[in-house]
């Protein structure tokens, strides 16, 4: 079920009615939310709800036992059971075909011909997100950073809370479980701004990502031939805008829907295209994933505590895993590896060169931000391309090494994409230290109303309600 669908609107209205019924016990309201979450997920493929139950039951009972066991061997065994259960399901459904294909290619390098039956595996939507969310619970208990949840209803709702179930934000146990303990209902102000964020998220997804950016992006990345430099760059910039508006749009919808119910979800994006450097970028892009990888992978590996060489190795390995988390393809690994190399180079430069005072001026920071945005767009080529040949052909086209490149985009499409990208980057810089709710709440009511009405009219005009969010595939 998609936020940008009529079925979700009907479900959301029903959930709101049940959630705000007077004198209905909080336990019943939580049960309603849990059932709505299962219905929301089952709309894609009902049998995959069983996977949610498996993850829920494994981590609930492992967590209860793990906290009170003191023997090192038993604690590691219980943690291993949770890791095996969750990562095993993720490996089978998401990486089974990928591993098999690479195994066949490895045999071929040794001169062995092997043609296995093609596995018919359907990827459960959002499995990477809820797997990392449940793992954070078990890992926090293993570290004794949190106590086990005693209420199965609350824990099941933590795993399956429908606003953020399939594409995040990935919420830690201490950020969501305590919210289920007491009755939650939004005040008028919170409900109002929740609806505003839901509208903003849908506008970003439907109008900006799907109507304006998706077409040119698909044309360029789907082209079987080399392109002229302008078309190639416009297609990459279109995808840069598409993936931001699509994913940040989902997160904004999720935060808005949760707010309407009286719950708080953390920000997942903070204007990433205004980042100055890649450390700054990953503090602004997909924040819940980058912080998860930092706290549960990079720091346990040693972080920056074991000397420069291991620090660089830890950075690169963490980003390679982050790339593989996004998809079962080597192009995603290269995307993550490039970000790892960028982070390594940034750390090396900061340690070796003292920044001159002029580099801290606003104009210099803006220049560094544009350079960061340029490098980010290079990585998006590998993220979006179906294979390396497509990525290489597009990179050649972008940098003028394809003199016979074809022109496939209409002039109007080029102008529209470039206009939206310029406005997007400008908005990120203007808002880089602000929040959209802070600006909207301080604006005159008539200005907010006009902006809100304009977004609603454009959503209705676009008449797009069935395009899946990009990150559902991850």
UniProtKB/TrEMBL annotation:
UniProtKB keywords: Acyltransferase, Cell membrane, Membrane, Transferase, Transmembrane, Transmembrane helix
Record-level Gene Ontology MF annotations: acyltransferase activity
InterPro entries tied to this protein: Ac/AlaTfrase_AlgI/DltB, AlgI, MB_O-acyltransferase, MBOAT_fam
Transmembrane intervals: 6-21, 33-54, 74-93, 121-139, 191-208, 247-265, 315-342, 362-383, 408-431, 443-462
GO cellular component: plasma membrane
One Pfam family linked to the record: MBOAT
Membrane topology, as annotated: Multi-pass membrane protein
Primary location class: membrane
Subcellular location: Cell membrane
GO BP term (any one): alginic acid biosynthetic process
Protein family per UniProt: Belongs to the membrane-bound acyltransferase family.
Protein name, UniProt field: D-alanyl-lipoteichoic acid biosynthesis protein DltB
